[in-house]
Design goal:
About 3% of the residues have low confidence. Helix 2 runs antiparallel to helix 5. The chain contains 13 helices and 45 strands. With 759 residues, it is α+β, with helices and mostly antiparallel strands. The longest helix has 20 residues. It is globular, with a radius of gyration of 29 Å. It has an eight-stranded mixed beta sheet, sandwiched between helices.
């Protein structure tokens, strides 16, 4: 029977509706497949996307790495000849490393860390997945080596006549060719011993400064590796891991007069309760030594000078009402570290970084009187770091953020300034995020700059006049722009005070349709040690893959993070549970007010480590806004985590503020959907921190999901060999609870892949 026109129209409408629903579907197998292919697709479409440069020794050569058509290439550039070449034969080096380590390395994705070329560029040292190697370039042969360490043996005097060492916990010296020691101290004991690594001779070889150390509590964190690769039975291990409130080693300086063969006591009134004391550093004239004292609680930071008679004085003292950002536990400057010191003229003047006026700036001190001679930099912007000081020209080269009103305050720009604060000169005028490195002799610098929407440019310039010598690399993204790729959108909104700009980025799916409604997922890390929203060009980001499943993904730097004013940073003080959430929520609402497709009735959040604490904190403290969370390796209770990080922000001694910010103590508040992920061998954050949350959730009859990854360390399920699995679990969790659909099954797909590989 012939269909009527009305029936045909009805069928067409049904078909169109079906097509429409299919095209609007989210979280489908097609979405997962597309997300999994983005990285390779985007990286195959870029040419010569370069990273920062590193100068080689005292030469005018530097190396850098660039991405070109999925191939990561290490390059060498000679500034004197303008010649550039591949640093080595990537295929042969990859083959040599594979043979050496037993792992499989490919030429196109070599990941070499701690890379250091010799001056002649005939060989290089590097670390490959934790293995120290040395590779000769001519024959592409790699061998295992050791990371450089200070030998534990005797410390020789500058005149090569004496050596100092520790015998029976005490300091002794002996002639270089002698056997019998001369005992200089008798007060050392097993419970208060002299430290061999602290021994420092004066330049004239007549004195020694050293530390006597009373040991603190050696807390052990214990682990059971349930599923080791090399045996059937589990393995038991432990590490030393200090936590907030623990009794610390007490280091006290002692001075020794070698000529008089006597020990000189030093009054510790100016440094009674150290969290950390830096190694002694002698003045060139041997008349005094200095050290820096960070008091427990991080609210007193002093430069101490001890003269040859053992009398101590304070040269500089910073005593903020909240915290002083300082060097972290392994000796490297924390990202937010506001500690910088340079002694001019053997300490007659001192360049010092401080936040005393509310912003991170440089000051010039009189090293004799301890008075401030002048403030070198000033304004509502921050000095990020100092790269060079030229005493003869009395000039400083430094990086800063927030120097241009209306521009992104997180962009790093580079400057030169005179000691007296005059002659401020910008070296990096491009409106972008810069990374600049100077040659050892200071004659040249390499500037690598980009924005999220501006691919990297690598330029070589002269320091004297900033003149361009060569454009070393200029990225080509023409093919990339022909794909679905789009740069994350930079978005700002006012914070909780109604006047401070909060900066973040928005990542849309590659098949974005503005007529649809998209649930929102926030990628969070609110650690006060830095700022975390990307500022430089991204060929690919894992946030792009997450978005392609059917979401809009965002990242925000709220109050409490670093690289803004001291007041902005201080929001974290004794209050890590805040995590900038009041600012973040206002930012989300501002985006939703501008874009109808931004659905803040369905907001998820995920993060790892401090971000893991933050992600769960979103559900506990702001359940009216955040509905779903995935938390990786979270430091859920700041009393359970590493001492240097947590005491700096949460203060010492332990007080009620620790409980107020604790995800363990507040687990009873849980609303929404939660997935906890933890590696059983996490040496960065005690895995028990997650399990204590689990205990409280069970105790309070809360529903949640838990993924424990055997053998995994801190990167479990997000930045290690389990990342593919962890990403998939996160995708599924958000698809199920934000999109409200069942994610595509993957057991059969995995079985098919395994069978194909075996065939």
């Amino acid at each position: 029977m012939k269909e009527s026109r009305g029936v045909r129209v009805a069928k067409i409408l049904v078909l169109l509706a079906t097509v429409s629903v299919c095209s609007f579907a989210q979280g489908t197998a097609v979405d997962y497949d597309r997300a999994g292919r983005l990285k390779a697709k985007y990286e195959a479409a870029v040419i010569d996307v370069s990273g920062p440069a590193t100068w080689i020794g005292n030469t005018h050569r530097f190396w850098y790495r660039k991405l070109s058509r999925t191939m990561y290439i290490y390059m060498i550039f000679d500034a004197d000849t303008s010649q550039k070449n591949a640093a080595f034969d990537h295929d042969k080096i990859a083959a040599s490393l594979s043979k050496l380590t037993g792992n499989t390395y490919k030429a196109q994705d070599l990941q070499l860390t701690q890379l250091r070329f010799d001056n002649g560029v005939t060989s290089f040292n590097a670390s490959v997945d934790g293995t120290a190697v040395r590779c000769t370039i001519s024959d592409s042969v790699c061998t295992k080596t050791e990371f450089p360490t200070r030998p534990p043996g005797p410390v020789r005097s500058p005149d090569n006549k004496w050596e100092a060492l520790i015998i029976n916990y005490n300091l002794v010296i002996r002639g270089v060719d002698a056997k019998d020691p001369i005992v200089l101290s008798t007060d050392g004991s097993e419970g208060n011993a002299y430290n061999a690594r602290s021994i420092v001779w004066s330049p004239d070889s007549t004195k020694i400064a050293a530390y006597r150390v009373r040991p603190g509590y050696k807390r052990e964190v214990r682990y059971i590796e349930s599923s080791p690769e090399d045996q059937v039975q589990p393995k038991y291990t432990s590490i030393i891991y200090a936590k907030p409130g623990d009794v610390l080693d007490l280091e006290q300086p002692v001075l020794f007069d070698i000529v008089a063969r006597k020990q000189i006591a030093i009054d510790n009134a100016l440094f009674p309760n150290p969290y950390e004391i830096t190694d002694p550093a002698w003045r060139k004239d041997s008349q005094a030594f200095t050290f820096e004292y960070n008091q427990r609680g991080h609210q007193v930071y002093r430069v101490i000078e001890v003269n040859a008679a053992g009398k101590a004085r304070t040269v500089i003292s910073d005593e903020p009402a909240t915290f002083f950002s300082y060097r972290n536990a392994n000796g490297s400057l924390a990202d937010s570290g506001r500690r910088y010191r340079y002694d001019v003229g053997d300490g007659r003047e001192i360049i010092w970084m401080s936040e005393r006026d509310g912003w991170s700036h440089l000051y010039l001190y009189d090293g004799i009187t301890g008075a401030v001679k002048n403030q070198i930099t000033r304004g509502e912007w921050v000095v990020r770091a100092v790269q060079r000081v030229d005493e003869s020209k009395r000039q400083i080269w430094f990086s800063a953020g927030g120097t241009h009103e209306g521009k992104d305050p997180y962009f790093a720009s580079y400057y030169r300034i005179n000691f007296d604060g005059s002659g401020l000169t910008e070296l990096t005028p491009a409106d972008a995020n810069h990374t600049l490195n100077y040659s050892t002799d200071g004659q040249l610098y390499v500037d690598n700059y980009s924005r999220l929407d501006l691919p990297p440019v690598l330029e070589l310039r002269k320091t004297a006049d900033n003149a361009l010598v060569s454009t070393v690399e200029s990225s080509n993204i023409n093919d990339l722009t022909k794909t679905e790729w789009q740069a994350p959108e930079v978005f700002t909104a006012k914070g909780r005070d109604g006047k401070t700009d909060i900066w973040g980025v928005i990542v849309r799916p590659s098949n974005f349709d503005p007529s649809k409604k998209y649930p929102v997922i926030e990628n969070i890390y609110a650690g006060p040690q830095g700022s975390f929203v990307p500022k430089s060009f991204l060929t690919y980001s894992s946030m792009m893959a997450q978005a392609d499943i059917g979401f809009v993904v965002v990242q925000i730097d709220g109050m409490g993070t670093s690289n803004r004013s001291k007041a902005f940073h201080d929001v974290a003080w004794k209050n890590l549970g805040d995590a900038g959430f009041p600012d973040r929520i206002l930012w989300h609402k501002a985006v939703a007010a501008k874009y109808p497709w931004y659905d803040i009735s369905r907001v998820g959040i995920y993060g790892g480590s401090a971000g893991g604490q933050n992600a769960l904190g979103g559900l506990l403290f702001h359940p009216e806004f955040y509905k779903v969370a995935v938390s990786y390796a979270g430091c859920h209770d700041n009393r359970m985590d590493k001492i240097w990080w947590n005491e700096q922000w949460m203060s010492w001694p332990i007080g009620p503020q620790y409980s107020a910010s604790s995800n363990v103590d507040n687990a009873y508040r849980l609303q929404g959907e939660l997935l906890l992920v933890v590696g059983e061998m996490d040496t960065n954050v005690d895995p028990s921190s997650t399990m204590q949350v689990v205990h409280q959730l069970i105790k309070h009859n809360k529903n949640f999901d838990l993924l424990v990854i055997p053998g995994a360390n801190h990167g479990a399920g997000r930045s290690d060999r389990y990342a593919t699995y962890g990403d998939h679990k996160r995708y599924d969790f958000f698809v199920r609870h934000l999109l409200g659909v069942n994610p595509p099954p993957w057991n059969q797909a995995a079985a098919n892949a395994t069978q194909s590989a075996q065939e």
